[in-house]
Amino acid sequence: MLSKDFIPRLPFPEFKWKWASYAPTESINDPVVLLGVLFRMEKLEGRYKYNSDEFDRELRELSSDISDSIGVNLASRGGSRNLMRNSMQYWKALNLIPTVKTPYISLTDFGRKVARHEISQTEFSAITIMTLKLPNANIEDDAVSAKWRDSGLVIYPLKLLLSIAKHTGYLTTKELRTIIIPLSGTPSCTLQDYVDFIRLFRNGDLDLNDWPDCCRGANDKRMAREFLLFLSNYGYLMQEEGSNDEARFLFNKDISDEIDSILSGVATNPTIDDALRLLNSTDVISDVERKKVQSSRARPHQALFRKEVLQACQRCVITNVSLPEVLEAAHIKPFKYHGADSVGNGFAMRLDIHMLFDTGHLRIDDAGIVELSGRARMDYGSLIPPRIVIPDFIDKDNLRWRWDNYNGM
């Protein structure tokens, strides 16, 4: 245990937590952007370059799709100013595209599985929490990585932040950059030390004047915040209003047991395959998905939305079941991304079908083609029609939006 008067020292001058890019664009971390771009890469993989007209067109379409919900302009980042020139590290850092330069758009096996919906969004985030480590060899300079190794440091930052947040209730960007990151350069620092120093800070009993600054660069504060944003974007932390240094990222108590299972996963240098095998051997992913869906539906206008959708479409669009007790209204374009509470944006779905739809295990394109994930196919493959008739009142642009941009909760 470290004493309350302990003052950390940097293991080397350049020590910091590097998320992805030295010029971060926080909105890229949103799943609809990060994975939406990935889906489009997969369509062009092996045939087109990042500065091609085809990739430019895909970015413009995505930019148009998210203009009402996410504040990032991808339309201006094609051609010679393409998105990958400054932001490729977002996808490299998470093992979605290769670290070596390739002449054409290329994905890793992991990235390809995510892009093809073989790995769900919840699986992707859990695998990332379990495997992302610092130094990140995918993006870090070799010389800096060597300094990490010489200092005996390996940090799993997302696991660490969740562990701390569970004990402290929430974290702020200020606490991350002024307390957690400086302490993480001390190999002997324990989880209890992090918790104790944060509590001292919140009680006004911690003098940080002599503590080292690990966010000296112009973008370092924003880059540190990316770790909290990732956990917030995928539902492990709940971000309060505000983007300032002291805005709280609350630990999601609703999935506390599931987070524990993720944190207690493979302990020593887990690979992506290790993490996926562990997750597949438990119910943790299905439990997280179920609880996220239940939480997202607890909105004031959900009852009215259900009533109007079921009046317009009195049977499950997939199974043809008409019993009202087992029917729900499913948003096609999610409310989170400005999907309307309107009949044109809703399907009547049986309870379990709605769950599959919301978690990305069942997808429907604007021509009515139905696609199941590998996991869902095992149980539902013989029960789900390969194609359905889209009701006339459905806005098919919402279906296209979901098919092109969304991978579930």
Short description:
This protein has 409 residues and is mainly α.
List its salient traits:
6% strand; 409 residues; 18 helices; two-stranded antiparallel sheet; 44% helix; mainly alpha
Characterization of the model:
The chain is mainly alpha-helical and 409 residues long. The chain has 18 helices and seven strands. The strands form three sheets. The chain has a three-stranded antiparallel β-sheet with strand order 1-3-2. Strands 4-5 form a two-stranded antiparallel sheet.
Task: Please give the structural blueprint.
Elements: H1 31-44, H2 53-66, H3 83-87, H4 89-93, H5 109-115, H6 121-131, H7 142-150, H8 157-168, E1 170-172, H9 173-184, H10 191-202, H11 220-233, E2 237-239, E3 248-251, H12 256-263, H13 272-280, H14 284-296, H15 302-312, E4 327-331, E5 346-350, H16 351-358, E6 362-364, E7 370-372, H17 374-380, H18 396-405
Antiparallel strand pairs: 1-3, 2-3, 4-5, 6-7
Helix pairs in contact: 1-2, 1-5, 6-13, 8-10, 8-12, 9-10, 12-14
**What is the end-to-end distance?**
39 Å
Helix content: 40-55%
Strand order of the largest sheet: 1-3-2
**Total number of strands:** 7
Mean pLDDT: 90
Quickly give the structural class.
Answer: mainly alpha
Number of helices: 18
Q: Point out poorly predicted stretches.
A: none
Radius of gyration, rounded?
Answer: 22 Å
Question: How many strands, what sense, and barrel or not for the largest sheet?
Answer: 3 strands, antiparallel
Quaternary: single chain
**β content, as a range?**
5-15%
